[in-house]
C-alpha cells in the first residue's frame, strides 16, 4: 500500500482510505491530526471520539463530530459529568451520533474521572507523562499500540476511566500530537517536528 496519496489539490497526504476525495477528511488530516492539543475540554473531546471510533472508521466519527459536540455539551467535562439517565436516554435516541450504550456511559464516566483527578493532575498531564521517549522511525510501520499507550491505558483505568485500551490510547496520542505518524512524503510531515 502506498504511504501517501495525492489529492485533487496536488498535495500528498497520508494514504487514509478515501482521503483523496473527501475535503472534510483532508482538513482534519491537514489541520488537526498530529498537531498539539491542549485544554481539558479539547483533550476530553479527542478521548471520547477515539473511544466512539473503536470498531468503526474514523471518517464515520468525523462526519458526526458536530452532532457529538451538540449531544455532549461541547465536551465540557463538568456538564457531561452531570448527565443522568434522561441524558443517556436522549443520547441513545440521537441518530446523529453513534448510539452505543457502553460508549455513552464510558464518556459520562470519563468526564467524572477527569473531575475526580487530584489537584495538580489533569488529563493533559497524564498524557504528557506517557509521551513516547523517542520518535518512531519515519516511514516505519505504524503500530496500533505501543508500550507507552499501554502504560497510559493502565494509568487511565486506575484513575476510573473506561473504554481506554492501549489502541484507543495510541490513537489519541496520534490525534493530539504526542506521536507524529504522518508518513514521509506527506506535506504535513514536513511542517511538524517529530516529537
Plain-language structure description:
By secondary structure, this protein is mostly helical. Helices cover 51% and strands 3% of the residues. It contains eleven helices and two strands. It has a two-stranded antiparallel ribbon. β1 and β2 form a beta hairpin. α2 packs across α10 and α9 packs across α10. The two termini are 25 Å apart.
Number of helices, where a helix is a run of at least 4 consecutive DSSP H or I residues: 11
The strand order across the widest sheet is 1-2
The biggest sheet, with number of strands, parallel, antiparallel or mixed sense and barrel status, is:
2 strands, antiparallel
Termini separation (Å)?
A: 25 Å
What is the string of helix and strand elements? Answer: EEHHHHHHHHHHH
| Percent of residues in beta strands | under 5%
Instruction: Please identify the structural class as seen in this structure.
Output: mainly alpha
Topology, number of strands: 2
Assembly of the depicted chains? single chain
- Tell me the radius of gyration: 17 Å
List the helices and strands and how they pair.
Blueprint (H helix, E strand, L loop, with lengths): L3 E3 L5 E3 L8 H9 L8 H14 L4 H6 L1 H7 L5 H5 L3 H8 L8 H16 L6 H7 L17 H12 L7 H10 L11 H5 L4
Amino acid at each position: 500500500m502506498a504511504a501517501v496519496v495525492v489529492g485533487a489539490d496536488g498535495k500528498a497526504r497520508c494514504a487514509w482510505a478515501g482521503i483523496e476525495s473527501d475535503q472534510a477528511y483532508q482538513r482534519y488530516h491537514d489541520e488537526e491530526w498530529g498537531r498539539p492539543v491542549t485544554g481539558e475540554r479539547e483533550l476530553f473531546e479527542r478521548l471520547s471520539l477515539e473511544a466512539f471510533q473503536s470498531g468503526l472508521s474514523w471518517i464515520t466519527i468525523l462526519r458526526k463530530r458536530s452532532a457529538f459536540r451538540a449531544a455532549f455539551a461541547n465536551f465540557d467535562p463538568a456538564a457531561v459529568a452531570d448527565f443522568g439517565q434522561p441524558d443517556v436516554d436522549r443520547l441513545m435516541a440521537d441518530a446523529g451520533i453513534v448510539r452505543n450504550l457502553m460508549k455513552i456511559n464510558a464518556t459520562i464516566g470519563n468526564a467524572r474521572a477527569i473531575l475526580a483527578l487530584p489537584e495538580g493532575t489533569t488529563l493533559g498531564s497524564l498524557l504528557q507523562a506517557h509521551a513516547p521517549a523517542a520518535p518512531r522511525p519515519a516511514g516505519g510501520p505504524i503500530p496500533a499500540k505501543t508500550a507507552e499507550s499501554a502504560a497510559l491505558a493502565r494509568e487511565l483505568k486506575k484513575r476510573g476511566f473506561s473504554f481506554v485500551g492501549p489502541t484507543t490510547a495510541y490513537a489519541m496520542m496520534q490525534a493530539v500530537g504526542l506521536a507524529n505518524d504522518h508518513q514521509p512524503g506527506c506535506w504535513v510531515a514536513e511542517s511538524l517536528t517529530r516529537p
